[in-house]
Specification:
Elements lengths: L32 E2 L38 E3 L18 H14 L9 H6 L13 H9 L25 E10 L3 H11 L2 E5 L13 E2 L4 E2 L9 E9 L16 E5 L11 E5 L8 E10 L5 E3 L8 E3 L5 E9 L4 E10 L4 E10 L12 E8 L2 E14 L4 E9 L7 E4 L16 E4 L5 E3 H5 L2 E2 L1 E7 L1
Parallel strand pairs: 6-9
Antiparallel strand pairs: 1-12, 2-7, 3-10, 3-17, 4-7, 4-10, 5-6, 7-8, 8-9, 11-23, 12-19, 13-18, 13-20, 14-17, 14-23, 15-16, 15-18, 19-22, 20-21
């Protein structure tokens, strides 16, 4: 589904595709699958947490924990962390600019980097271009798969072409998907992890004089009516005292998020505007980029899912086990595993099975336990192994994760063809498995026509 970025200077109407468009049917005996909820249908220099078996939510420019009583006003700009105000021009790229601006701010003020929206929108694994828009799944797949981000100077914006062969300037190792958060919870995320990306119903038409939603005198926006979201916003902070009287239509109460747009400095107060807490469409979902690492944190990423989380599958209960088999490309040490949590409060257990040649997968009881924990938010996570495991070039190894996601019988994220933008997905040469309990394994490729979203990170010996 592609619904972000449809509110650029060209003022195009959003094209909202159903979440159930084109998808591959599972084999007759395989459990059913569901698509990840996407709020549009509904979108360096670090101090690492080196605790084994734990996620890499670093706090290089954030705070370990937000206080119970947050300040009534907060703005990352006051800390020297405002990214450049971008202009998407005639292209539908607000989603890319917003995501990259959030990462840039996360690294500031220590690092002043500017990333390429051209590369993110054109050089990802999807069959989309700069006029097609994007969504949260595209963003997570591009960043989690180390397809980017690359520097703006390496792939400048606006020419409609991209540069191949570039490598990421940083590694994004954790992205939290924020759905159903309260205003206070969103503030906590911003205070802890920096600006977040969210979506709303906004376009050139809805901000024109006479539209009723935007007040250019106070740079404020409030839409009381429910619509499909078609634009992205970077939420820099908040102001509880921003008066309800500042809005064109008076909301039920005071307070606004401080947002940055992607229409250049001519819009709002130099690109900044105030979004009412009570807007009917904003902040229903979002992304927080909670771990950004240096590009040399790992030497190798093993993965089978360049398009990332496209739907969810399971074995009929809240728990299932997923696995991928890989062949070592050199003598390496396995250091971490990366996977998606499809729901908040997902419990995980990571296992590794090193073997010269792996035929059928053994019972999970024969594997090496490598870490466990609970993930408060849905999203993509990297988990450090309890201990490094050596593998030799040409030998096989497998990673597995037992996932328990409350409230769903489909706790596993998989990559599959399901719309016009995922037609490049292939299961050829992939060896992914899914199991109810780690005893009997089903091929993901044969039973779901899908690839397991489970990455492994390694360093050279």
């Amino acid at each position: 589904m592609k619904t972000f970025g449809k509110a650029g200077d060209a003022g195009r109407t959003a094209i909202v595709l159903s979440a159930l468009l084109i998808f591959a049917q599972p084999a007759a005996n395989a459990p059913a699958a569901e698509y990840p909820e996407n709020n549009t249908e509904y979108r360096a220099d670090t101090t690492e947490n080196r605790s084994a078996g734990k996620t890499e939510d670093t706090q290089e420019n954030g705070r370990i924990n937000a206080p119970d009583d947050l300040p009534s006003c907060y703005n990352v700009c006051d800390e020297g962390r405002q990214p450049a105000v971008e202009s998407q021009g005639e292209y539908e790229t607000c989603w890319a600019f917003t995501a990259l601006s959030a990462i840039e701010s996360r690294l500031m003020p220590r690092q002043q980097l500017r990333f390429s929206a051209d590369h993110m929108s054109l050089n990802n694994a999807f069959t989309a271009d700069v006029q097609d828009g994007g969504d949260y799944r595209m963003i997570m797949a591009y960043l989690a798969g180390w397809q980017g981000p690359v520097l703006e100077e390496e792939d400048p914006y606006g020419d409609g072409v991209t540069v191949d062969g570039l490598t990421p300037a940083v590694h994004v190792q954790e992205i939290r998907y924020l759905k159903g958060k309260s205003t206070e919870e969103i503030k906590q995320e911003i205070y802890t992890y920096g600006p977040i990306q969210t979506s709303l119903f906004m376009s050139r038409a809805t901000t024109e004089e006479g539209s009723g939603y935007y007040n250019p005198e106070t740079f404020s926006y409030y839409c009381p009516d429910e619509f499909k979201v078609i634009h992205d916003a970077l939420v820099l902070g908040w102001d509880d005292h921003f008066s309800r009287n500042n809005f064109k239509i008076e909301p039920p109460g005071d307070g606004a998020f401080i947002c940055q747009n992607t229409w250049g400095t001519d819009f709002g107060d130099g690109g900044i505007y105030y979004l009412s807490y009570y807007d009917a469409n904003a902040a229903q979902g979002g992304l927080a980029f909670s771990s950004i690492q240096t590009k040399d944190n790992y030497d190798m990423i093993y993965q089978t899912d360049p398009c990332g989380w496209q739907k969810s599958v399971g074995m009929g209960s809240e728990t299932c086990v997923i696995s991928n088999v890989y062949t070592a490309k050199s003598d390496q040490m396995l250091k971490a595993a990366g996977f998606y949590a499809v729901r908040p409060d997902t419990e995980y257990e990571v296992y590794i099975y090193p073997e010269d040649q792996i035929g059928g997968l053994p019972s999970l009881s024969a594997w090496i336990p490598a870490g466990s924990g609970v993930l408060a938010d849905a999203g993509y996570y990297t988990v450090r192994l309890d201990r490094s495991l050596a593998v030799k070039q040409g030998t096989e190894f497998a990673a597995a994760v037992r996932l328990t996601s409350p409230g769903t019988s489909k706790p596993a994220a998989v990559e599959t063809k399901h719309d016009i933008y995922t037609q490049n997905v292939t299961t050829d040469g992939k060896r992914g498995y899914i199991s109810k309990d780690g005893e009997i394994w089903l091929s993901a490729e044969e039973n779901f026509d899908a690839n397991i979203c489970l990455k492994v990170y390694a360093v050279q010996e």
